Amino acid sequence: MTDDQAPPAPPVDTAPARPRSCDPQELGFTRRPPVPWLAPLLLISTGLRALLALLFGAYLDKRELQNSLSSDGYREPGDQDGLWLDYVADLGDGFDATYSVAYLLAQREITVEGQRLPRGDVLVMGGDQVYPTASGEAYEDRCKGPYQAALPQVRPGEQMPNLYAVPGNHDWYDGLTAFLRLFARSRDNDLGGWCTPQHRSYFSIELPSDWWLFALDEQSGAYLDDPQLRYFEQAATALGPESRVILVVPAPSWVKAVDNPGAYDAVDYFVRKVIAPTGAQVRLLLSGDLHHYARYTGPDRELITCGGGGAYLYPTHKLPERIEVPPRDSLTRRPSRTESYRLTARYPDAARSRRYGWGVFGRLPLRNPGFLTLLGLLHTLLMLAMAGVAVQRAGTSDRGLFSVPMVGMLAIILIGAGLFAKPPSAGGKRHARHWILGLSHGIAQIALATLGTWIWLTLPFHDWPGALPVITAGVLYGPVAGFVAGQLTAAYLLVAGAFGVNLNELFAGQGIEDAKCFLRLHFGPTGELTIYPIAIDRISRSWQADPDGAPDTSWMSPTDPLPARFAEPPLTLR
Predict the structure, then answer these.
(1) What share of the chain is helix, strand, coil (3-state, %, to 5)?
(2) Is 240 exposed, middle or buried (0-12, 13-18, 19+ CB in 10 A)?
(3) Biggest alpha carbon distance in the chain?
(4) What is the pLDDT of residues 302-337, one digit of tens each?
(5) In sequence order, what E strands does 166-315 have?
(6) Hey, how many other C-beta atoms are within 10 angstroms of the C-beta on 221?
(7) Could you tell me the residue ranges of all domains in the chain?
(8) Domain 30-348+515-573: which topology?
(9) pTM of the predicted model, to two decimals?
C-alpha cells in the first residue's frame, strides 16, 4: 500500500488566468443548458448507445487492459483532527445545477444549520460525471470546466485535495475512453485545484482509524472483471476483524433488485468473496445513479443513495419502505444472509416529490420542444390519413397518399407507446402493467387524432385545392396537435407514475434542476464516521464573474445567496 500524497499547489503564475466575464472565450468552456431528455434525436442516439453498450460492452471493456497499469492503493491519513471526505454523483448535466454543487464543494468552509464544515481533503465522484453520452467535449463543458471554475487552484504551499472518480453507465457509453483520459492520466493529473492520482477506473483508499473505501467499476452492472477482483483481493490483505469498509458502487443495486433480483449479485459476490474472509465489516454502501438522497438502515449497515450532483431530480415518493438485501428470489446459489432494511430518510420528502410530479404539465413542453414537434408531426400525418379515408376519395391520388399509410401510422403510434412504457434498454422485467398502460396511452393518442380529424373536417381547409390542405395542416394543425398531445403524454406519465411505470420519464421530461445534494463525511480522530447529507433546495441561476478574486477562489459566484441545509440530521457510525 503506497502513500500517494498530492503535490503542492502550482505557483500562481502557472494557473489559468481568471476570466473577466462568463463568456465561453474567457472561461474556456461553454455553460451548457440541462439535457432535454425527451428530445427525439437524443432519445434515439442515447437509446442506440445504451443498446450498443449492452450488446458489445464486453468487447469494448477496457478494464482487462488496466491490468497493466499501477496496482497501488491509496492512503489518506488525515491529520490530528481526522479527515474530511466529500461525495458527489450524477453531476455532469446543466451548468447551473452542476456548478451550484461544485461551488459549495469548493469553498474552504460552509456553514450548515450553524455547523461549520470545512472542504473535503478528498473528493469522490460516484458516477455519471457527464451527460448524455461521454466525449471529450462533453466532459470539458459539463464536468471539468465547472469544477475547475469552482476551485481553480489552492493557496500556494497548500496540499491539493485528491479527487477520485467511479464511472457510471453514461461514462461507459464510449467504452470508458474519455473517462480514463480525464481521471487516470499519468501527466497533467489535476482538475482545477483537485489532484487526480488514480490509475484505474476502480480504487481502494486506506482512511483513518482502520476505515477503508473500496470503489467498484461494475461496467454498467455487467460483472466484476478478474483483474479488478485481484486488485481488491490484494488490497483486502490489509483488512482485519476491526476494519470497517465503505463500498462505493455506481448504482443502488439494493433498490433496483426489487424489480430485478439479479441487480445485487455482483455486489453480494464482492462482499462474500473479498471482504467477508477478512472479518471486516461493510458498514456503508454508497452510490448515485438515482438522482436524489435516500438512506436504508439494516442491522449493521447503511445503504445510501446520493445522486444529486446536478442531473434532473428523480422521485422519492415511490421508493419501497422496506427492502430485503440480498433479495430472496436471487438465482445466486449461495448468497449472503438476507437482511431487512427500512427506508429511514429521503430528500426531497415524499410530499414534495409528488408535487414535483404534478409540474409535468408545465415543464414538459418548456423543456422538450422537440418532443412536442415530433408529436405534432405524427398527429398531422395521422389526421391527414384519417381525413383521406373519411371523405372516401376513391380512385384519386389523395386516397393513395393518405389512406394507405393510415394502418402504418396507427401501428407506429401503438408500438411506440408500448415501447415508451418500457424501453428495451431499461432494466428489470416487463410486467402486465407496462403493456396495459402503454397500449392505453397509444389508444388515447389515436382517440385524440380521431377528434382532431373530426374538427379538421368541420373546417374549410380540407376542401382547398392542391397541396394547400397539407401546408395548412402543417402550419396550423401541427403546433396545436403537438401541444395537446404533449399534455396528453404528461397526463399519461402522471397516471403511469402512480403505478411505478415511466417514473424516470415523468421526471426526466421535466428536467428539475432544484433539490440537489451531496455528502460531507468526517472521520474523527477517535474512529467515528459522521455523515453530513447536504441539501440544496434551490440552485443558483445567476452568476457573476470575480476577476479580481484571490487565485484560489471560484471564478464565478452566485448573485444571490446559495443556502444549504441538512437533508436529515447528521449520522454517526462507529
Answers:
(1) 40, 20, 40
(2) exposed
(3) 90
(4) 999 999 999 999 999 999 999 999 988 877 778 888
(5) 190-191, 194-195, 203-206, 211-215, 244-248, 281-287, 293-297, 302-306
(6) 23
(7) 30-348+515-573, 360-509
(8) Purple Acid Phosphatase; chain A, domain 2 (3.60.21)
(9) 0.90
